[in-house]
Amino acid sequence: MELTIAERVHLYDMLPDEGNVTTIRAISEAQSTIGLSPEELEQWSVTNENGKVRWDSGCDTNTEIEVSSVITDIAIEELNRLNDEDKLTVGQLSLWDKFVSPNGQTQ
């Protein structure tokens, strides 16, 4: 799945800290894939300023990321929960479009 830096940050933040062994193993693997590598941090001039991740907006940051079915299920569940609670943010909308509504359908 092609994800931007912003989408990767939002997806990473959605991953739970607890779960069953299958979930935690999938999360552990996904964190290394979804997280930004030292090369990406340098290439896109990524900084963390007061808890806000910033990067060179002139760069194309789309990157093909392998997302397992377990992580996909977690993302869909969390996005649906946020939507149901009226807490979905503009920053998460593109993840909604990719995970929950990939064919442009609305829930």
Number of folding domains?
1
What Rg do the Cα atoms give? 14 Å
H/E element sequence:
EHHHEEEHH
Task: Give me the number of helical elements.
Answer: 5
> What's the N-to-C terminus distance?
21 Å
Taken from the alpha-carbon principal axes, the silhouette is globular
The residue ranges in which pLDDT falls below 50 over 5 or more consecutive positions are none
How many beta-strand segments? 4
Structural class based on helices, strands and sheet pairing = mainly alpha
In short:
This protein is mainly α and 107 residues long. 50% of the residues lie in helices and 9% in strands. It has helices at residues 5-14, 21-34, 38-43, 69-84, 93-100; strands spanning 2-3, 47-49, 52-54, 63-64.
Question: Top keywords for this entry?
Answer:
107 residues, mainly alpha, two-stranded antiparallel ribbon
What can you tell me about this protein's structure?
The chain has one domain (2-100). The two termini are 21 Å apart. It has helices at residues 5-14, 21-34, 38-43, 69-84, 93-100, and strands at 2-3, 47-49, 52-54, 63-64. A two-stranded antiparallel ribbon has the order 1-4. The protein has a two-stranded antiparallel sheet with strand order 2-3. Helix 4 crosses helix 5. It is globular, with a radius of gyration of 14 Å. Helices cover 50% and strands 9% of the residues. The protein has 107 residues and is mostly helical. The longest helix has 16 residues, at 69-84. It is built from five helices and four strands; from the N terminus they run E-H-H-H-E-E-E-H-H.
